[in-house]
Amino acid sequence: MSTPKPIVGIRDILVSGLGGAVAIALVAWLTQMSGQPLLMAPLGASCFLMFVVPDNPVAQPRNVIGGHVVSALVGMAVLTLFGSAWWAMGVGVGLAIIAMRLTHTNHPPAASDPLLILLSPLGPPGWGFVLTPVLAGAALVVGVAVAFNRLRPGVKYPTRWW
Fold it and tell me: Is residue 158 part of a domain?
């Protein structure tokens, strides 16, 4: 027999959506104002975790930031060693999963970071990509999640920093 799921109110659903919207809009605005690339698609999935299941281990700051950085480093290494061949994409995702598990920085959205690097329509990114948008973008959305979730009654985020 399965355990019944708790009823989630419409207010909580709307507030979690608002949190994700605010986080991505702020990072997009900062990207536009600074001219620095700070936004990347996987951060949208990271926001889902931080605002919908903020107590889940994969939504904690260490996992969000660390998972993205580790996976981006893997993606850059795969690109440097093998280029963007079709099989390198599988190798990149597989190695990112292994690296996140070994470093205890499991964050499912970050597994797509090697694909982002290998499929870049602007050509191969340099190693600076790990700093911006990856590290900076992940840190910014985590910062918004920390601030925003403190305003939500009954929500504790983060449950742990490291």
Answer: no
Closest CA to 72 of 147, 21, 4, 138: 138
Task: Confirm whether 140 is domain-assigned.
Answer: yes
Question: Which pLDDT tens digit goes with each residue over 64-114?
Answer: 999 999 999 999 999 999 999 999 999 999 999 999 999 999 999 999 999
Domain annotation covers residue 161: no
- Domain of residue 49, residue span: 10-150
160 falls within a domain: no
pTM metric for this prediction? 0.93
Give burial (CB, 10 Å; 0-12/13-18/19+) of 26: middle
